[in-house]
Amino acid sequence: MQQRSSDWTIPEEPESPFPIVTNFCDIVFGFGRGSAELGIPTANVPLEQLPLETQDLELGVYFGYALLKPVDHQDTTAFRNDGTTVIYNYGRHLNVTNGDFEIHPVVLSVGKNPFYHNKLKTVELHIMHPFHTDFYGAQVKFNLLGRIRPELNYDSKEALIDDINKDKLIAKEVLSRPNFLKYQKQVNC
Ligand code: ADP
Ligand code: MG
């Protein structure tokens, strides 16, 4: 696959500090821009629920595997600063027959999202699976197996979308290699 000039080199197998594996962590709301503006939803997770090594990662795009779990809870409503509401359904509408509870490849952004001038570090996962519903309040366990590229600043939304689509292709290809595929089961225990 063609490399971009900014791409990091991906080794033959995960190299330190990878693999990093998380516990199940809560899916919380972000700024609501992933799906609305980019068509690429990202499940945001609280930094403080992640292993310490995660905090030392350079800002950039990473890849790994993720597994979802619903939480037994009634719907609640949360409010973003801009006044928009977010319904937490705790994953109640996730569907076994749609494969929602299988382990899926993910691209992760560890970033401050310079395109949006965010101040706080965010960790967000785009799970490569066609969900039919959102699942705020559900939990996700995932691993990080390697890194794709540093966080970049973009002149246009289209350029950002283009790069994320390339990130997804790279992640899928690398995660299908036996040396990475074998870490899929790591998120299942
Ligand atoms: P927010 O900024 O609130 O995270 P997004 O636009 O990034 O908003 O949407 C994220 C939400 O979309 C996730 O929390 C999840 O409930 C839902 N979602 C649907 N499909 C996916 C997917 N493939 N990967 C990640 N989240 C998804
Ligand atoms: Mg998001």
From TrEMBL:
Keywords: ATP-binding, Flavoprotein, FMN, Kinase, Nucleotide-binding, Transferase. Pfam families: Flavokinase. GO terms for biological process: FMN biosynthetic process; riboflavin biosynthetic process. GO terms for cellular component: mitochondrion. Pathway: Cofactor biosynthesis; FMN biosynthesis; FMN from riboflavin (ATP route): step 1/1. Its EC number is 2.7.1.26. GO terms for molecular function: ATP binding; riboflavin kinase activity. Residues 20-176 form the Riboflavin kinase domain. InterPro entries: Riboflavin_kinase, Riboflavin_kinase_bac/euk, Riboflavin_kinase_dom_sf. Catalyzes the phosphorylation of riboflavin (vitamin B2) to form flavin mononucleotide (FMN) coenzyme. Belongs to the flavokinase family. This is Riboflavin kinase. It comes from Zygosaccharomyces mellis. The lineage of its organism: Eukaryota, Fungi, Dikarya, Ascomycota, Saccharomycotina.
